[in-house]
Each structure stands twice: as C-alpha cells, then as structure tokens.
Amino acid sequence: MRRVLYYSALILLGLCATALAQAPTRDPGRLAEIRWTGRSQLLELTNRGFIIDHPHNGTAEIWLTPAQFDTLTSEGWNVRWIPDQAAEMWKYLRTKYAGTGRTLGAYHDYDGLTSALLSLATQYPDLCRLSSIGESVQGRDLWVMKITDNPDTEEAEPEVRYTSTMHGDEPVGMELLLDLIQLLLNNYATDARIKHLVDEEEIWIMPLMNPDGYSASPPQRWNANGYDLNRNFPDIVTDPNNIPAGRQPETQAVMAFSAGHQFVLSANFHAGSLVVNYPMDSPVNDTDTESPDNDYFYATALTYAQANPPMYASTEFTHGITVGADWYIIRGGMQDWMYNWMGGREVTIELDDDKFPSDTRLPALWNENRESMLSYLELAIAKGVRGRVLDAATSGPLSATILVAGRDQYNSHPLYLFTDQQVSDYYCLLQPGKWDLTFATGGYSAQTIQGVMVTAQTMTHLDVYLGKAPTPGICAWGLY
Q: Are residues 306 and 373 in the same domain?
C-alpha cells in the first residue's frame, strides 16, 4: 500500500514542486533566545508552530518575526535577539579569504561541491554513480553519490543513506560527507575494511540537501521558500499523510528517492550541538518518548558516539546520545518519517556545538568522526536477519512486508519493514535474541516464522518462500 500511494502521488510531483517554487516566500524571522523552565513550555511553543532548536540550560533558540517577538514578550516570555553564529562565521570567512578564489576557505560552495563530486565520479567509474534526485526551489541539483562495487547492477545488498545540511547554515556535515566519499573511493583498492563495506553494501551519500539555503548570503537554515526542511516531512501526530504533495521540492525529492529504494539504515547530519539523537522526535505524548525499537536505536547511537571521543565524553548527554523527544519535541522530522513509514532506521547526528565551525577545525572534526561514520555503516551488515522473499513455486522475487512481533506498531500505526522492490532482499536490524517474523504480500498466504535467532556476531540468513493463497470457493462442493 505504501508503494501504491507513493507512485500515485509522484505523478503529480513535478507539478507540486513547480507550484511550491512559485509560492510566496515565508518569513521565518530572526534568531532569538527564549528562556524556559519546564519541558511543557517547549512543547507549548512547538505546538504553536514556533521552530525551537537546541535547548540547553534553560534557554533555547527560536526564530521570530518582530510581531511574534512582541507577542511572546507581552505574554511574559523572556526573549531576546541574539547574534547568528553561522552568519557571523560566514562573514568572517568571506573577509579572511577575499580574492583567493575560495571565499569560504576549506568549505566548498555549491559549484565547488558539484565540481568535486563530478571529478570523483569520473575518476572512479567502477565504484560510483553521481545522480541528481531533483532540484531545489531555485533549480540547483540535489546530488547523491552511490558507492558500491557494481554500481549499475541491483544486488541483494543493504542500502544505506547519509544525508547532510538540510539546514543550509550547518555545512560541516557536507564537508565531512565529501571527505567520506573520498575516503571510500580512494582507499577501496588498498584497505580491506573499506573494500568489504563497498562490496557488501550500496552506500548513498547526499552531502547537501538544502543548496539554496547554503548558497544564500549569508547561509540560512531555511530553503528558498522559507521552510525548515526538518519540519516538513509527514508526522505521525500532526500530519499523518504519507504523500509528497504539498511539501517543499527538496522534501518531495527525498521522499520520492526513498520510495524508490529500501534504505535499511540512514543518518542525517546537523550541527549546533554534539550528540546522536534517535527516535522518537515526535511522540504521541510527552512521557512515552521511546520507540518500540529503542534497544536497537540505543545501541546504534552508542556505536557512533563511542568512536567520537568528544561526543562520548559529553557532560550534557550521557555518552553523547539521547532520545530526541527527551531532549525536545519536533514535528515533521526526517528520522521519524523514515522509521514510521519507510521501514528504515535513521538517527540525527549533531557534529559540533557551532552550527558553522571555522574551516580550520574541519580536519579535527573529520578525525573525530571518521571512525564513527565507518562503524555506523558497518551496522547494516553486523547483526539482525537478512534474506529474500520468494515465490514458493517459481523462486521469483516478491515485494513483501515484514512485521517483527513486539515492535510491529506504534500508537496503532503499523511499523512495516519492506523487501527491495527489484531483488526482494530484506534486512531486519535487531538486537541479539529470538524473534518472530511475519512475511506477507498480496495474493499469497502470510507466513510467520518463530524463534529466529539473532546473535551479536553475524547476520542470520533466512530466505522465505510464500505460496499462493487458496482461491476463494465452496469447498464442500469441490469448487475453487
């Protein structure tokens, strides 16, 4: 059903994107700081439609128009305008590197990023493919690099996706993902670990989801229509319609791209704090914040943080990780959408306390995150259950859904996993234990396999063969 809805909706994708691009730009306001004394106040502001970010020690960032600032002040809120660190860094770098040809120093601009990606795609044609999954409001390509050993062949391999800079004023992840692309391609022939990753997975890397926001002067959080892309996805509480129509072009492009693949593991990279944040971001209530797969997400987030010494040593977040809603609630975030509707496991990784660190810090940030990025990619082939779902009579591939007993719904919303549409492989990323799995597809008898063992050392392989469902009839008369 998910696929049917998507492909029906995607017929209108181009028209919707055009309409949105021509729509009047929203005024997202200026950066301010607001003081709060309890989580209920943060939730109140979120429910009123304000963008809240990075609460810390009783303060949080909030974006306000002057009229909104006056309204909150009249209501007794303690708010004040504050400098925009990202804008200040952008101005500093522009001054420092004026006339050098690299106006932001070690940071690539959009054209420079495009050139770097095109060069790598040309240099390593046997390992990667560069493609655009759509265009931004202002017509910039949304680049994605696919890295695998047979880039033109669909294989039974887990698909993993890294995305960054959906907020245009947080470009550090863009640079680190470009570093990662170079690492994987440059070292494939000489590093056994990297070769294993590239051989066994399809790795999709999108360094810059919001090129218009990044290309603004100064860079801005929003897309060119003034929307926060990480508040623009379907939301289980406030916007439970899993269709791209009516959303921003960049959001629509990522939704369509994800619908055409089966990303079993993903991460999106931000900055402004130092933590790995995992679902739920948008719980149905303020107290039940953990997802049904909290044990897996906890271990996954810890894998990333443990390999990043400053993150793991955090004094704000135990071991540098948190359930998103235990920090603060957002609506319309990408990681919850991936979990609730797409059958994926996604976390949000905040790379640095500064949204826009100095370019001189990029080498250190790469050193801090290199091992974490590789270790996280390895989780897609580390533990769980994998296999294919096939027709029992023909051994042909089937598009099927999988439900894991005990974590098959959240607030009556089914949490399906899905086979790949082309080769019917599936991946249930689970913690060690015994699991009951139910496989189903239209026209076939569903099959539940009980007690599937998952160990900490390797993936359990399980191919499933489904037989055709009996044709309805009157069995007593022998009619079928």
A: yes
Q: Determine contact, residues 128/147, Cβ cutoff 8 Å.
A: yes
**Alpha-carbon distance 459 to 191, whole Å?**
23
For residues 97 and 105, what is the distance between their CA atoms, to the nearest angstrom?
A: 6
* Same domain for 340 and 256: yes
Q: Residue 420's closest CA among 159, 219, 145?
A: 159
Q: Which residues form the catalytic set?
A: 350
Question: Burial letters for 3-28: b for 16+ Cβ neighbours within 10 Å, e otherwise?
Answer: eeebeebbeebeebbeebbeeeeeeb
Q: Is residue 127 part of a domain?
A: yes
**Cis check: omega of the bond before 218, within 30 degrees of 0:** yes
> Could you tell me if 127 and 168 lie in one domain?
yes
| Helix/strand/coil percent split, the chain, to 5 | 35, 25, 40
Domain residues for the domain of 401 are 385-466
Task: Give me the CATH number covering residue 9.
Answer: 3.40.630.10
Q: Of the residues 329, 360, 381, which one is the last residue of a structural domain? A: 381
**Domain for residue 480, yes or no?**
no
Please identify, among 381, 402, 426, the residue that sits at the C-terminal boundary of a domain. 381
Q: Which residue is associated with the tokens 């691009």?
A: 21
Side-chain-side CA neighbours of 284 within 13 Å: the count stands at: 10
Q: Could you tell me which of 194, 207, 193 has the C-alpha nearest to residue 142?
A: 207
253 and 398 co-located in one domain: no
**pLDDT 10s per residue in the chain (480 long)?**
444 444 344 434 444 444 444 455 899 999 999 999 998 999 999 999 999 999 999 999 999 999 999 999 999 999 999 999 999 999 999 999 999 989 999 999 999 999 999 999 999 999 999 999 999 999 999 999 999 999 999 999 999 999 999 999 999 999 999 999 999 999 999 999 999 999 999 999 999 999 999 999 999 999 999 999 999 999 999 999 999 999 999 999 999 999 999 999 999 999 999 999 999 999 998 889 999 999 999 999 999 999 999 999 999 999 999 999 999 999 999 999 999 999 999 999 999 999 999 999 999 999 999 999 999 999 999 999 999 999 999 999 999 999 999 999 999 999 999 999 999 999 999 999 999 999 999 999 999 999 999 999 899 999 999 999 987 654 443 333
Q: Does 479 fall in a domain?
A: no
Q: Is the dihedral of CA 314, 320, 323, 329 positive or negative?
A: positive
Domain count, the chain: 3
